[in-house]
Design goal:
The protein has helices spanning 3-14, 17-40, 46-77, 80-84, 90-119, 124-151, 155-173, 182-193, 204-228. 80% of the residues lie in helices and 0% in strands.
């Protein structure tokens, strides 16, 4: 970890329009839950609002914007070469970037999902489970998307393809894809850490190992890519 890099990364996130979008997404989820409850007069369906919309859309998009925001623009405009010219380990840079993106994502995702659960009239179990799901999902998604941002200039597109096509469209058709899905792994870990039963057909041991692999491999891959980045700029 490098405090200076983390501080600069945080400034890059909150000092741009991206910061407003990051904040808007959880607020829209809360507004959706409150509106559905007001129109129906009953508590919202937690599986639909919290899991499918919150964990399935809001959390990964927040994580994608945060991860791409702390690294993507520097690669796009070439300013990353100045960062890489400093005597700081490339892996320390990757960890610092990821930690900043993860911290922002965890805060917005966990609070956003919990607020949506409360606004939707769900009980304490759902509120606690929402905090767990938002935090776990944000940590894992940011690790994966940080690697995408370091690997290609099109990290945002790669992340959207992963979320919308691999986890979304293909995940609905091929049940076996749940074993490589952050969405499904997060649900299983949430079940283990809360009182929620989300009906995920996955062993807890596998979910724990897979989560650790995503975390370590994602951040490690970002550091490896930065280490191989040429000062003249390469793709």
């Amino acid at each position: 970890m490098n405090a200076t890099i983390s501080r600069l990364a945080l400034r890059a996130l909150v000092g741009q329009r991206r910061g407003l979008v990051l904040l808007a997404l959880p607020l829209l989820l809360v507004a959706l839950a409150a509106t559905v409850r007001m129109l129906t007069g009953a508590a919202v369906d937690g599986q639909t609002i919290i899991v499918e919309v919150g964990l399935g859309i809001v959390v990964p998009v927040v994580a994608l914007l945060a991860a791409n925001g702390v690294l993507g623009p520097e690669i796009d405009d070439g300013s990353v070469v100045y960062l890489l010219s400093t005597p700081v380990s490339r892996y320390a840079m990757a960890v610092s970037k990821w930690a900043t993106a993860a911290g922002v994502s965890v805060l917005l995702s966990a609070v956003g999902l919990a607020a949506a659960a409360l606004a939707g009239g769900l009980g304490a179990d759902w509120a606690l489970g929402s905090v767990v799901a938002g935090a776990v999902g944000a940590v894992l998604y940011t690790a994966l998307f940080t690697a995408f941002s370091a690997a290609t200039r099109h990290g945002m597109i790669a992340g959207l393809v992963y979320v919308l096509i691999l986890e979304g469209a293909m995940g609905a058709l091929l049940s076996g894809l749940r074993y490589v899905s952050v969405y499904s792994i997060t649900q299983r870990l949430t079940e283990a850490l809360s009182a929620l039963d989300l009906g995920v057909d996955m062993g807890l041991g596998y979910a724990v190992v897979a989560g650790l692999v995503i975390l370590v491999a994602g951040v490690g891959a970002a550091g490896w890519r930065l280490q191989r980045f040429q000062l003249r700029g390469d793709e």
